[in-house]
Amino acid sequence: MTEELLHPYARPTKRDDTYIRIVRGSGAHVYDDQGRDYIDGMASLWYANVGYGRQEITEAVAAQMQHIAAFHCFEPFTNAPAEQIAARVSDLVPIDDARVFLTSSGSEAVDSAIKIARVAHARAGHPERSLIVSRGRAYHGVTYGGLSAQGLPANQEGFGPFVDGMVNLAPDDIEAMAAFMAERGHEVAAILTEPVQGAGGVYPPPDGYLAGLRRLADQHGAYLIFDEVICGFGRLGDWFGAQHFGVTPDLMTFAKAVTSGYVPLGGVAIGARVRAPLEADDTWMLRHGHTYSGHPTACAAALANLDIIVREDLVARARHVGDRLFDGFAALERDGLLAEVRRCVAVGATRLAAGADAFAVRDALLAKGVITRAVNNETLTWCPPLVITDDDIDRVVDSFAGCLSR
Ligand SMILES: Cc1ncc(COP(=O)(O)O)c(C=O)c1O
Fold it and tell me: Cβ(225)–Cβ(39) under 8 Å?
């Protein structure tokens, strides 16, 4: 037992010996140091799309490390895995001729997208365009750019002051967005949104909402940023939320399932409208980059992970997984055991009936060997590995029913 580890998103006073110590994983299962077996209903934190224990990713990482584990990509250096993953992501996103900036996390990807949007407008002669307009309930990570832009006040408490120039509007109200853009659109660098809001409780967008954002961004000369950190790499039955909803942004952030979490990696895909001002003057330098931007071992993990997603057709499989799981939950809703099921393909949330405590239900599910996540007192979220078997999906639904009816 160690008291030295200060856990992320945790009560600092929670006793160390009450944590569940995960030691191993295989497929959609993880195992703790007491030998207990859990079906992971959350793909860890929305990322383990190919599941656990994939030997070929381990081998790709080991092979890369035997050549060179890490070397930076600041000018004048590069490496093949970073170039290859940029090319793969550029091919997969719906943005034409996208270039890809690499990071190690979703938060860094969001902050990079915000900075790149602002600097692109400044380079285009519009430094007055600095506002980032985001939505209530949005989660864009924990570093100051994304934290300042997000729409979950509890996550901001005590951490101010925040980055200037962030405007957070009602989440689903396209009229409010239109009114704001009519008044201050000439000051806006970008509209920032998740295609499906995830950590805020899984809220798919209203019909036509994302297309409405695209229209408003175009009308007012702003960029549109999709934060695809959860939606990307198959979760919505398409490679990205952009394809799922048929709306193409100017910038797309990604992380999580690009490696299924085997090694941390994130990034931003950047379209032509944003690239052009950055590429207009060959003496100008982009003074932004992380030590590990383009880390070759992380990129090698991503390449092997994408090979698995393609070979096992996991993007298509997301629809099957989502239908089986959420049809099961819909039956629980019809039986009065749940108040609401929100869902988009293979990611969703269940709101419990009045009086139920989501943290207590989460713990009851853990005791039955099922992992979910309580994002507030009434909501559990679901995002299983895309390799989960039908039997395991049925066990999740049955276990959940058992915990709710008690
Ligand atoms: C939409 C979105 N953006 C950004 C982030 C932050 O990513 P990270 O935790 O890798 O910094 C998350 C994490 O859940 C996310 O869901």
Answer: no
Superfamily of domain 16-53+313-405: Aspartate Aminotransferase, domain 1 (3.90.1150.10)
Task: Name the residue of 256, 260, 268 whose CB sits within 8 Å of the most ligand 1 atoms, as the mutation to test its pocket.
Answer: 256
Q: What is the pLDDT of residues 346-404, one digit of tens each?
A: 999 999 998 889 999 999 999 999 999 999 999 999 999 999 999 999 999 999 999 99
Domain parsing of the chain, residue ranges: 16-53+313-405, 58-311
- With a 6 Å cutoff on the Cβ, whether 392 touches ligand 1 is no
Q: Which CATH class is domain 58-311?
A: alpha beta
**pTM metric for this prediction:** 0.98
Measured CA to CA, the distance from residue 106 to residue 352 in angstroms comes to 29
Distance of CA 194 from the midpoint of ligand 1 (Å): 10
Each residue's pLDDT tens digit, 163-202 = 999 999 999 999 999 999 999 999 999 999 999 999 999 9
Phi-psi region of 313 (alpha: psi -120 to 50; beta: other; left: phi over 0): left
